[in-house]
Amino acid sequence: MRRLFPVTEETVADASGGAVSAGGAGDSPGSGRAVDREWSLDELAAAYAYPERTNERREAWLRANMVSTLDGAAQHDGRSQPISSACDMRIFGTLRALADVVLVGAETVRQEGYRPARARAEFAAAREAAGQTEAAAIAIVSASLELDYSLPLFTSPLVPTLILTGAAAAPDRVAAAEKAGARVVVAGDGMGVDPARAVQALAELGHTRLLAEGGPRLLGQLVAAEVLDELCLTISPMLTVGDAQRISGGPSVPVPRHFELVSLLEESGFLFSRYHRS
Parallel, antiparallel, or unpaired for β 101-105 and 61-69? Predict the structure, then answer.
């Protein structure tokens, strides 16, 4: 993996402590330029670390992690895995290991066969030092609460699964969710979830390192509500054609939201970008 874009305007300290600048495939160790090699999990964790807190307030930082083909498809045959890569999945796992909670839409849970986040020995000490649970909780955004409670998300999570819903959710479905072991969190006055209230509710539960994994509709809602702080976007060197969804969906915003590129990594043609809200 190579770092292509410096975080500062001149140089950047890489995850192993050396100063590097935008480099090419021929760069070598000790040259002060990026080296094409597999990064360790510690290096990836350092590269994707959440911003340091500046005060004692529980202010949440919400990042999203998505993948898109060159022609804008976020899925192939309804799933993101076919347009991903082994390195993309390493970063996916690292982002989960850094997060307090993973935010995901109910439709994505159904389509992708979501499972609970697992504990990973490589990150256990860091999570304990940060006061985190052994694995990230999964928080499902659902207005209807039409979920399969026989899934491992509910039968065998290391951390109880959360369900974010509205105050008008059907009482019998709320009861069914709670009977299945889920914690139901009200984050909206009607049937649906208000993104800003969802972020606030999670922060009040102590979850300030937030990671959204989709789907496109949920990401669109987060963007429109102006609560998304960071986008980690994998650009897959593939073309799929078809009518697959983009990484975000829903009504357009009145004015496009501007984000700044803060880092860019490359491996086998895949680009791993990070953008922060301006």
Answer: unpaired
